[in-house]
Amino acid sequence: MNNGNAPLLEMRNIKKDFFGNQVLTDINLTVHEGEVVGLVGENGAGKSTLMRILFGADMIRETGGYGGEVLLNGQKVQFNSPFDAIEAGIGMVHQEFSLIPGFSTTENILLNREPVKKNLVSEVFGDRMNTLNRTMMDERAANAIEMMGVKVDRKMIISDMPVGHKQFTEIARELSKEQLKLLILDEPTAVLTEKEADALLESIRGMAKRGIAIIFITHRLQEIMAVCDKVVVMRDGYVVSEEASSNTSTAIITRQMVGRDVDQPASAASSDAEEKKDAPVILSVKRLWVDMPGETVRDVSLDVREGEILGIGGLAGQGKLGIPNGIMGLYPAGGTVVFEGKEIPLNSPRSCLDASFAFVSEDRRGVGLLLDESLEWNIAFPAMQIQNRFLKNYLGGLVKWRDEKAIKEVTDKYISELAIRCTSSKQKAKELSGGNQQKVCLAKAFALNPRMLFVSEPTRGIDVGAKALVLEALRRFNRENGVTVVIVSSELEELRSSCDRIAIVSGGRVAGVLPASSSVEELGELMLSQVI
Amino acid sequence: MNEKTMRKAKFGAFLSRASVPMMFIIICALCIPIAGLSPNYLVNEIVTRMGRNSFLILSLLIPIMAGMGLNFGMTLGAMAGEIGLILVSDWQIVGIPGMVLAMIISVPISILLGLFCGKILNMAKGREMITSYIISYFINGVYQLVVLYLMGSVIPIKHGSIKLPRGYGIRNTVSLLNMRQHLDNLIPLNIKGVKVPVATFIVIAVLCLVIVWFRRTKLGQDMRAVGQDMEVARDAGINVERTRIISIIISTVLAGIGMVIYLQNMGNIATYSAHSQIGMFCIAALLVGGASVDKASIGNVFLGVILFHLMFIVAPRAGAYITGDSMIGEYFRVFVSYAVITIALVMYETNKRRVKSMEGERLRLDQEKEGKDE
Description:
The structure holds 2 protein chains of 2 kinds. Chain A has 3 domains: 1-89 and 179-260, 3-Layer(aba) Sandwich (Rossmann fold); 102-178, no CATH class; 269-356 and 450-529, P-loop containing nucleotide triphosphate hydrolases (Rossmann fold, 3-Layer(aba) Sandwich). Chain A is built from 20 helices and 24 strands. A 6-stranded mixed beta sheet of chain A has the order 6-9-10-3-11-12, with helices on both faces. A 6-stranded mixed beta sheet of chain A has the order 18-21-22-15-23-24. In chain A, strands 2-1-4-5 form a 4-stranded antiparallel beta sheet, with helices on one face. In chain A, a hairpin with a 2-residue loop joins β11 and β12 (238-244). The radius of gyration of chain A is 26 Å and the shape is globular. Chain A starts with 8 loop residues before the first strand and ends with a helix. By secondary structure, chain B is mostly helical. Chain B has a single domain, classed as ABC transporter involved in vitamin B12 uptake, BtuC, CATH 1.10.3470. Chain B has helices at residues 2-35, 39-58, 61-65, 73-90, 95-123, 128-150, 198-215, 218-228, 230-235, 240-266, 278-288, 298-323, 327-373, and strands spanning 173-175, 190-191, 194-195, 268-270. In chain B, β2 (190-191) and β3 form a beta hairpin. In chain B, α2 packs parallel to α7, α4 (73-90) runs antiparallel to α5 and α4 (73-90) runs parallel beside α6 (128-150). Chain B is globular. The model of chain B has no long low-confidence stretch (mean pLDDT 87).
């Protein structure tokens, strides 16, 4: 039912902003029947948002909808929920599995679409009392699995399966929907072994032959080259290139993905990076593993020199966030961490804090702030709790009272230093904007007078002005107090401009440590080198 | 290496599941000789109690399947059953017809209470057990209002034998003499001195079949899905809230019917206390049978009834024999019920944590293996 010669899917001039923050600008995308389109771009380039628009995610509507139009077979469509999108023949396999752990493959493939048999009770009480037709379920599941072309045990329980099979189960579920015309695969190979990934690529080719169009999102460029007809590269909410895959190469794509202002002079800090080269190692991490869901760290060894700013970069989900969270004891971890010659026990946040580490978490609202308390409390609380500061002792230390005056003083100092925009130091933390909340988190860490500061995603979700201020504050803190700083960030540019050295994490391991003056291409290559 | 640890973990999981029933088998095995009861008496008692309690305990299964845990919502159904029986005994409808009518009266009340309970539990996801426990206290208050003040003044009650002398309200005990064990004795069977309530067992067997069949329906499948992962079920288009409410309603309706069966065996209603501990004892029995907060089968129900009540019978005698005080048995009963529930809840949490730490263990092993390879 191809409407003339119209392509299967056409997205025209798609625009999307989140509260004034433009994330997609004039995106055009066409997909033909049976075509495999590779969609690549750094984290935050807008891939996921674009796919959410296409799939009718609630989150898009809740944040004010989108601009531009989506056409299916030449007809304008507007999906109000994922169910509308599924109805129209779009299937999506998300990064997170959406499977019932105690169900078999078959049951999961046909979840809520089970073929049923009518019976006497269902005549009275309605369709939900129909009994399941197990034979038919088996048949349909077998068909879907066959269509995929990968062998999966139909009777196996999901929780007993290796991750690869779970992924295949998800794909089979989409394939079992008869109306399926377009399948979106969001980093499907991320969890697969090499062999499984090959099998998946093979099955993508098979599906395309059957006329199903596929949008394939991945960070593994060689897979794109192997299987896609067309490659679309996104960066900062724009489509920067759209080429037949035969006309491009992984090197070109890498450059297109990361390569903004390639010749920009590197960091301001790098000028004195040379002298820090000989600085003694202050923190030595050996064979660290961290079990942080979605950010697993495997066998990381890393040295941090005294007084430097070390950047840790990498794509989302590759484990860079797991490193500080593991060292600080927020997630189960193993290995050894030695600070100034003393071993710091893992899985014990208190001993890290006692060793004068401080951590600014990426989870501002959850871990970082006491949302319902005043700024004064937020900033002074850890110092009070851990170092007994801002306290007045009475009766020889038996009774401790808060030193309100000192607390106010230190809070006001940071408010002016970091330009925190607030009505007073008594304002509640939850009333501040994201950028200002981030500054409060920094102030809180600064107030601890740490020797070692971990900062995780310091600029996530805050505007450009605040970003510059936050980074500047970190650099100043490092320079003036001689504090060693580790910044974890997904934004390479940010790391290049503020760090001395950059460690790139890929596949849970350190792929390499380069000076901050290295080119974006070099760093980008490392980022993609061991992606899992 | 890895496989070995996995197998070890699986064996450990089995052990922890079987540990509670094992413990009870040991307690019973120790108490039986001390109590010195005749085998004939023991078997008779067990059979009677199986007939009395199984239906009620079976009513717990469906909410567990829907992921709502051990649910005190059944207490609400029990109250509905009692109201049905009180009305029926006032109307002087006797025997089996009286029981059936009492069940019919209880059903709409159970549905209403189940709907109310389900709606509230949907607001307290993940804390169903404690929430339903408190709801049962709240509804107990409403029940007392109805039975103590409204019956006789608003709801017509004619017979003086069940009314309080002041003219309204129901007496502390309502006799069900003309209904007593009518179901149990409907089909008389006596094997070597053991009285078997055949008709009651048939009703229970039918309910078991219905539950087995129900698991194979679309609704049953949906409930299992909701029970395991609400978010995934919602994404697949299942109406999670509605499914959960239905599971509670089924539970309260079954409990209402179960209570009528329970009370016809007892032969009287303790108007203000019959329902108060029934939830606790049913849940304890189910747990003794090896069920957990998220998993329970029909087998658990029967094993639980046998072990729990065997202990009920022998422990007081054994206690009396050892200490010379018969009160010790009653004390022991309540103590053990609470202890079993506590143990089951703690084990549920530790199991969850163990699964988590296994993930970390796996990572460490992987790394060690790699280290050796290099």
